[in-house]
Amino acid sequence: MTVVDRDLRFDVPLYSVAESARFLGVPNSTFSGWAKGYFRRPPDGPPVTGAPVLSTINDADGPSVPFISLVEGMVLAAIRKTGVLMQRIRPALLALQDQLGIEHALANRRLYSDGAEVLFDFSQQSDEMAGVVTAANELVVLRNGQRVFSEIIGDYLLRIEYGDDGYARLVYLPDYQHRQVVADPSRSFGQPIFVRGGARVSDVIDRFQAGESLPDLAEDFGVPLDDLEDALRVASGRAA
């Protein structure tokens, strides 16, 4: 495959595991388990293993996570926020891919349109998913006669913009109040940038930490002051 043929969304590692975790606001160990799987040996029980649920390009110290896996990780984080356990999510993801007939189902438009029905039907038929809907009514809800995703998951799905092939082409990263920070593999190598002004978030944060004032940065980068303040709030929260 030549460089020209490669799809930046799928075929090019843009992020490290640590960066991906930071951008999504999840613990590094959590994202690492999603991307690489895990092996745990409890002191009073048998070993516990989990297979990866996200795709990575390589295991080098540098970037290993493609954009499409960052998007899937964001949706997976939303599902986990509903309280559904990973051992119930894994078989559900396999069912999604099988029933929708696509790979990377969490980053495809059909998850938004058909995924809730697929998961609801699977939860009624599979012992592994028994009780996911009825226990907490957190994952899929009935609205206007249709089974749709709960508010938490629905909000995350609205952060995704899809390409003509149905797969995510860019994503508005979570935690920002104004949805002003986007990851777009066609710009700045997928690094988070401000929607207004187009500056990389890391460049602005670095200059603020070097002592420059927010009004000066807003003028230099063309980023509204409110967006800068919100980005600093998110950055300080994730560094804590």
- Count of extended strands: 10
Specify the CATH architecture of the domain at 175-240.
Answer: Orthogonal Bundle
Fraction of helical residues:
40-55%
Order of strands, main sheet, comes to: 7-8-9-10
Please report the distance between the alpha carbons of the first and last residues: 42 Å
SSE string: EHHEEEHHHHEEHEEEEHHH
Number of helical runs?
A: 10
Structural class: alpha+beta
- Low-pLDDT residue intervals, each spanning 5 or more residues: 129-137
CA-atom Rg in angstroms: 19 Å
Strand content: 5-15%
Q: Give the mean pLDDT.
A: 83
- Major beta-sheet overview: 4 strands, antiparallel
Looking at the structure, the CATH topology of the domain at 175-240 is Arc Repressor Mutant, subunit A
CATH class of the domain at 175-240: Mainly Alpha
Describe it:
The protein is α+β, with helices and mostly antiparallel strands and 240 residues long. It has a domain at 175-240: Arc Repressor Mutant, subunit A (Orthogonal Bundle), CATH 1.10.10. The chain contains ten helices and ten strands. The strands form four sheets. Strands 7-8-9-10 form a four-stranded antiparallel β-sheet. A two-stranded antiparallel sheet has the order 1-4. The chain has a two-stranded antiparallel sheet with strand order 2-3. A hairpin with a 5-residue loop joins strand 7 (160-162) and strand 8. Helix 1 crosses helix 2, helix 3 runs antiparallel to helix 7 and helix 4 (86-100) crosses helix 5 (109-125).
Give structural attributes.
single chain; 240 residues; alpha+beta; Arc Repressor Mutant, subunit A; four-stranded antiparallel sheet; two-stranded antiparallel ribbon; 10 helices; 10 strands; globular
